């Protein structure tokens, strides 16, 4: 019978990160998400590209900036808060950004944005490519009745007529 055992590695010096952040306060972002702004995008039936970004607790008129350049939309935002008490005060600050590539036929000069309920919604009109007209293609039939005309070839040798 096998016995499972654990070995505890004894490390003479703690990890350097533990010296500067013993309580794990610096790791506030989710481990799997590298972008602090969650973005969802979709196309509507009329071809409009819609981008929604979750950005709760910010003032959209002062804390958000949208920049369009060379087919890329960049969302820049800053968030800050202060709390004052008799004995102490706290100040929090965070700046974050997210760049999203726009569709090829986006009308950059007609982009609009609004902020409601913590969600920034950006609407990008897109020029739809013209639909190709459908056309019917006729299929011509070949007739094999002329003397000396060969039919489809087969794997075996041609049978001789006597």
Automatic annotation (TrEMBL):
Gene3D superfamilies: 2.60.40.790. Residues 152-162 have a biased composition (Basic and acidic residues). PROSITE patterns: SHSP. This is SHSP domain-containing protein. Belongs to the small heat shock protein (HSP20) family. Residues 29-142 form the SHSP domain. Pfam families: HSP20 (PF00011). It comes from the Bacteria. It comes from Catenulispora subtropica. Residues 143-162 are annotated as: Disordered.
């Amino acid at each position: 019978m096998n016995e499972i055992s654990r070995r505890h590695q004894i490390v003479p010096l703690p990890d350097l990160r533990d010296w500067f952040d013993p309580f794990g306060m610096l790791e506030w972002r989710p481990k799997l998400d590298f972008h602090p702004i969650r973005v969802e995008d979709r196309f509507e039936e009329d071809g409009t590209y819609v981008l929604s970004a979750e950005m709760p607790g910010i003032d959209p008129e002062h804390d958000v900036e949208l920049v369009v350049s060379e087919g890329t939309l960049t969302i820049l935002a800053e968030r800050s808060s202060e709390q004052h008490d008799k004995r102490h005060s706290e100040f929090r600050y965070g700046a974050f950004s997210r760049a999203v590539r726009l569709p090829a036929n986006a009308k950059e000069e007609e982009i609009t944005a609004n902020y409601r309920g913590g969600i920034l919604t950006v609407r990008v009109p897109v020029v739809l490519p013209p639909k190709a007209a459908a056309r019917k293609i006729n299929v011509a039939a070949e007739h094999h009745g002329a003397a000396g005309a060969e039919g489809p070839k087969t794997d075996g040798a041609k049978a001789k007529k006597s």
